[in-house]
């Protein structure tokens, strides 16, 4: 397990004001002489309604009080919290609210960078780092939207068959390398984390290039052509 203090020390050698409260991270730091807002989670915490609201509030506060300030999301979560209480209170709406806040920040001109420094699973990842302007991961990170045993139960495809498919198809396989091939990750950081963050902020694009990256890297071949066909109203057929 990679602790957030170690990661923060490498990302911000000049220091930071990040604090932890009930597995929720928030604060700020200087990156290349400019302020950056930082939010995130730690200890593989599941995203329940409290943390979803805390993250959303921190993002909205940055949008209101610091227009245009970049936002770094540090991701370490086992996914959406699976409790009857959260389900009854509408955890799906809280997660959607968080995703909308990230989208609002991007539309308002904030560069949002996600960094999976430990674990990223299911809804906790989808509504944070995965919809940032760009998402990166450390080499030792664990990333998956759904484990193969759970996927087998849902799809009714034998787990042995999914395991076989995962050897060649990144859609079925976990890990940062496979998400890099699919375009979900823009890169894997190994070494100078402070320098990597500076470059990521400088290189961030306003649009969403994940589908194009997945096509170029050979890990997600149909998403971009289908989206382009829908946009222009033409037919698309597999090569």
Structure characterization notes:
With 239 residues, the chain is of the alpha/beta class. It has a domain at 4-138 and 189-207: 2-enoyl-CoA Hydratase, Chain A, domain 1 (Alpha-Beta Complex), CATH 3.90.226.10. It has eleven helices and eight strands. The chain has helices spanning 4-11, 49-65, 84-88, 91-107, 122-126, 148-155, 159-166, 176-182, 193-203, 210-216, 223-232; strands at residues 19-21, 24-31, 34-41, 71-77, 112-121, 134-137, 142-144, 187-188. Strands 1, 2, 3, 4, 5, 6, 7 and 8 form an eight-stranded mixed sheet that branches. A hairpin with a 2-residue loop joins strand 2 (24-31) and strand 3 (34-41). Helix 2 runs parallel beside helix 4 (91-107). The longest helix is centred in the first third of the chain and has 17 residues, at 49-65. The radius of gyration is 18 Å and the shape is globular. It starts with a helix and ends in a 7-residue tail after the last helix.
**How many strands, what sense, and barrel or not for the largest sheet?**
8 strands, mixed
Mean pLDDT, nearest integer?
A: 89
> What's the helical proportion of residues?
40-55%
The CATH architecture designation of the domain at 4-138 and 189-207 is Alpha-Beta Complex
Q: Can you tell me the overall shape?
A: globular
Tell me the span between the first and last alpha carbons: 42 Å
The parts where pLDDT drops under 50 for at least 5 residues are none
Annotated CATH topology of the domain at 4-138 and 189-207? 2-enoyl-CoA Hydratase, Chain A, domain 1
How much of the polypeptide forms β-strand, as a percent range? 15-25%
Number of helices: 11
Radius of gyration: 18 Å
Instruction: Tell me the series of helices and strands, N- to C-terminal.
Output: HEEEHEHHEHEEHHHEHHH
Just give the CATH class of the domain at 4-138 and 189-207: Alpha Beta
Broad structural category: alpha/beta
The total strand number stands at: 8
EC number: 4.1.1.87
InterPro entries: ClpP/crotonase-like_dom_sf, Malonate_gamma
Protein name: Malonate decarboxylase gamma subunit
Keywords: Lyase
């Amino acid at each position: 397990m990679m602790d957030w203090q170690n990661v923060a020390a490498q990302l911000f050698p000049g220091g930071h004001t990040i604090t932890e409260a009930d597995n929720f991270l928030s604060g700020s730091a200087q990156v290349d002489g400019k302020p950056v807002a930082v939010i995130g989670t730690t200890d593989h915490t599941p995203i329940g309604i409290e943390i979803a609201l805390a993250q959303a509030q921190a993002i909205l506060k940055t949008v209101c009080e610091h227009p245009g300030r970049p936002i770094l999301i540090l991701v370490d979560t086992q996914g959406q919290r699976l409790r009857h209480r959260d389900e009854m209170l509408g955890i799906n709406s809280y997660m959607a609210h968080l995703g909308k806040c990230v989208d609002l920040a991007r539309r308002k001109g904030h560069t949002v960078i996600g960094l999976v420094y430990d674990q990223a699973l299911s809804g906790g990842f989808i509504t944070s780092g995965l919809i940032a302007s760009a998402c990166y991961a450390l080499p030792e990170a664990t990333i998956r939207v759904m484990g193969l045993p759970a996927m087998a139960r849902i799809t009714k495809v034998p787990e042995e068959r999914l395991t076989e498919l995962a050897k060649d198809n990144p859609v079925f396989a976990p890990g940062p390398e496979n998400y890099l091939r699919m375009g979900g990750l823009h890169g894997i950081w190994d070494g100078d984390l402070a320098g990597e963050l500076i470059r990521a902020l400088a290189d961030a694009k306003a649009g969403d290039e994940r589908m194009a990256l997945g096509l170029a890297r050979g890990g997600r071949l149909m998403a971009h052509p289908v989206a382009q066909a829908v946009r222009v109203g033409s037919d698309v057929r597999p090569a």
